[in-house]
Give the backbone structure.
Amino acid sequence: MTSAKTSSVLLAVLLAACAGSKDNIDITKPVTGEAATNAQRAYQKGLEERKSQNFLEATRYFEWVRNNFPYSQYAALSELALADMSYERDDWASAAAAYQDFVKSHPSHPKADYASYRVGLAYYQDKPSDWFLLPPSFEKDQAPIRSALDALQRFTLAYPKSEFVTRAKDLIAECRERLAAHERYVAEFYWKRGGWRGAAGRWMVLADAYGDLDGGNTRSDSLWRAALAWRNAKDAEREKATLTRLIVEAPNSPHRRDAEQMLKELPTAPPPAQPPPADQPPQPTAPAQPNR
């Protein structure tokens, strides 16, 4: 009996401890005391809680500043701190959205360039992984990388003098390499299954969007593979156009000689029929003979 009673007491103590833990903080509860009377003090209190890894408490203070002192400089800083905490918790989608909202709400803020850069960085961090037990990352959905590329390119255009531009350009290059690898994978997927038009389309995307990669070799190789795919698809018109592009846009391509030979082998289209001169009426046709 004593043992059962002791167990009940321990369980009650444990439940009470859990109820009072940081994980059960009500972030909607109003801030009280000295911090509630001043935006700067409440913001500083939020920074202290964040530094101590008390993220829920920090959230309570930052949201209190944002909601109760909307015209204070600390309201914007609190918004940015909330975005940073989402990033630190690896909540990439929430972080990207919060940074975007900050830039929209405070486009001239001294930290706007930082927030704009972090939009792209958050998307990039959400990229497919290369964990060895899973398929390679280039086989997976590249939506986060596309979003990262778009955000980073917009950042470099909007804030060309930002201290984060150099790092952003490095990430842009890496995003483009990843997207090119994905396009190449999909093109090969169609190719191996005889989906010539699908393969040609993907090779053309690779040439147009990422042709400058690998010193321009990507454009040369992609146009060559696209031309071969059009030939397999029996589409002489597109094959001719693609071979012509290869010769013009990649004159030093190792495929140029073969491309020129393939162009010679393509059938020549008959000249279009010429209309009769305007001063000569069309010749009457012989009447059809009746069936006998």
